[in-house]
Every structure is written in structure tokens, then in C-alpha cells.
Design goal:
It catalyses: Random endo-hydrolysis of N-acetyl-beta-D-glucosaminide (1->4)-beta-linkages in chitin and chitodextrins. One of its GO terms (cellular component) is extracellular region. InterPro entries: CBM19 (IPR005089), Cts1-like (IPR045321), GH (IPR017853), Glyco_hydro18_cat (IPR001223), Glyco_hydro_18_chit_AS (IPR001579), Glycosyl_Hydrlase18_Chitinase (IPR050542). The protein has 455 residues and is of the alpha/beta class. Helix content is 20%, strand content 19%. It folds into 2 domains: 299 residues, Glycosidases (TIM Barrel); 63 residues, no CATH class.
Amino acid sequence: MTLLHYIAVAAGLATAALASYDSACSNNVVTYWGQNSWGGANLNDPANWERPLADYCQDSTFDVINIAFLTNFNLTGLPVLNHAFHCTTVFNGTNTLHCPDIGADIKACQANGKKIVLSLGGGNIYTYGLNSAAAGQAFADTVWNMFLGGSAEYRPYDDAVLDGVDLDIESGENTGYHAFINQLRAHFQGASKQYIISAAPQCVYPDSNLGSTLSSGAWIDNDYVQFYNNPCNLANIDNQWNFDYADWDKLTKSNPNPNSKMYVGLPAGSGAAGNGYLDLATLEANLMKLYTSYPSTFGGIMLWDASWYSNNQKYVRNLSSWVKSNMKCGSTPSSTITTTTTLTTISASTPVSSPATALPTTLVSTTPTSSAPVSTLTSTTTTATPTATTAQSTSTSSLPSSAACTSSNNGQYLCSSSGSSAAYSICNNGSWLSGSCASGTVCVQNGATIYCGWS
């Protein structure tokens, strides 16, 4: 995922309760809101930027919405949020946002049966991390008091109580997250509401930032594995060298939470990620293959992000409807499959009204990473130029000296110089084809798989 940003639109709030999240089901649909990544690629079209949070809670498309992101923590002072253009006001004397309108939307979404969760981390910002158990416990207390069921002088969403915490950790010290989770669960004891603890690792197994936490026995309700922006994207489902779903399934089954679920993370639009976006017919076939092969851990899908949904509504609504019709709750997979109309183009099916909130004089923007969003934040605004970070393949032949390309390793990826070069090669029907990660990133070898990471 990647952190970006931009403008709000007025909308009415529905009062009727809608279909709600069920942790026992395999057909939940999750998205991230608050980064306006579509707007980062469409700076001159603010009318179609990400809409207010409550707009995404008016029907049954989404069950869980993760608010992105809490970007700066484990520093002196209060933690820092980034919600793009949606909120820029801070508490006096702090860099912490005060967002009463988002707080009102949180409560409206919850009234419609949605779970609204705070996501921590994101990509591109290296000012977060928990370097000890003590740091993890202390930060859990802060999160509980500022965002969940506790109390604090500064609560960014006022009296709105979020439904949990998501870890989209892509940098920084990570030794304290197990203790962070344990301390949060201690706060959850006796609570009147169901809280969610989720993680959003990249699909390369094990994840370089969350792997140690996830394998250490930390309690996780949902793993939103990002099957995009890496060679392990869903397009490679039949490639033994790249697609490692079975490893994630095994990890999920080993979690101390017997109901822990794994979600297939996907881009919500063709430009939402460097790779991994598929036409509906192909995507549905692949999802059904995973669901029938791993029914006990399959929890549903995660889509990055809400702003792309706004500009690709027919595709996302059809996908959500198909998931809810074909993936069940507490039962074995059905042999009857409901189909949907395949859509391969992106279009906004519903016009978006003019922004109700003035655009800040400068915009916050960062570059996409191999999985999650984030951005720097001063008291109100910062500037940067959004650029894309995607792997770019070429057809130039390049034979790695360390391996032959034969039928036995067809589809294998190899970094030319892991960790120091952007170049990689792909074994393709007897010949090595060369490719390159995007500018500023390097190829990193992880067993038989590779990913593009920051240099």
C-alpha cells in the first residue's frame, strides 16, 4: 500500500443497519480509507478524489474499513496521523490531528454495522517502530486511551471508539509489536465490544517487517496479505516459484487464535498497485481455487483502497457481491458458483459532487511502496511530488551466471545482485529475460522468490 491524499464531499448518513462483519465468515470485504491514492495520480481532478468515510458505509460493499494511517510513533510527544486532505487541523501545540468530522463518520459507519479500525504504519515513512517490549506496552496504552476504549486529553476522533488496530508495518524496529498486541488484548478483556487485531504483510514469505511478530505467537484476528506489488501477486497463482499462499495458510493455522483468518489483498483499480490487478473472470476463478483449497482460514478479500473504489465502482461492487454470494459462513465451500459480469475498464459509475472542503494550499504526497501507504506530516501541510514505484520488465535476454533456465525452473525469478541492484531475471521457456525494479528500489532475493524494496 502507499500513502497519498486529498478532498472531501458532503454526504448524507444512512440510518438502516447493513450487513455486518462476522469473524467466522469467509466472505468479508475490507478496504483502506484516508490516503486518496487515486488522487495522487489525478491531481487535477479533485471532484473524483476520495470521498468522506461515511460515504463508504452506505451499502454492503465493505464490512471493515481501516483508517490510514498513524504514521509517526515511538517518538517524543504524541503520535502523528496522516489522512491526506480529509483532515489538517491539529490540537494546539501538537502535530496530532483533531478530526471531529471523521469521528462523526466513524460512529455513522458503526451504526451501519461496519467495523472501523485504525491502521498503523504504511510505507515510505521511517519514523515509527517499537524497539522493546516496554515500548510496545507503553504504546498500546497510548493507542487504547487515544483511539479505543480508554480516555485521554487528546482524542483525534473525539468520543468515537474505533473497533481495533491494524499493523501495516513496513519499516522501523519491530521487536515490540508482540508485547504491543498482548497489552492491547489485556485492555480488551471485559470490553463490551468486539475488537479486531489485524496485520497487512506483503505476500513475500516471510514478511521482512512483520514476519517475526506473526511467527512468534502474537494473537492475530485477520491477516490481510498483500498479493500485489510483488512477484507473488495473484496472477502467479500457478507458479510454484512465486506464489506462496500455502506458507501463509500454514502460519495462520499456527496462530494461537483458533479463528484467525487470512485475506487475499488486492488492488481496487488497475493503477492502485504496480501489479496484481486482474479482470473479474480470472480473479474470481483464482479466488475460488484458494477458497476451496484453504476453506478453514479463508476470511475474504482486502482492497487497496477506497479512492480507487470510487473510480472503479462497478468492478468492486461486482467483486464484493460475488465474494459474498460464493464464500460462506461456517460451512464447506459450495459446488454452485455464482458468476458476475466481467468488467475490464475503470469508470466512475456515480458522479461525485464538488468538494465541500477547500483544498489545502499544499498537498501531502509520497511514493508508492511495495505494500502500504504513509506520509510525512508537519502541523498542517507538507509537499512532495507523487511518483509511481513499479517493477518494469523488458524483453532483453540476460543469463544469470548462477543458474540455467530449463523446464524444471520455468518461471523462476533471480536477482542479479540481491539488495544492491534493481536488476532481476526471469526464466521463460528456456531463456532468461531481464527486468528491473523501479527507480530508487532494489531487487531482494527471498529463497525462490524476489521483491522490490527500497534501497
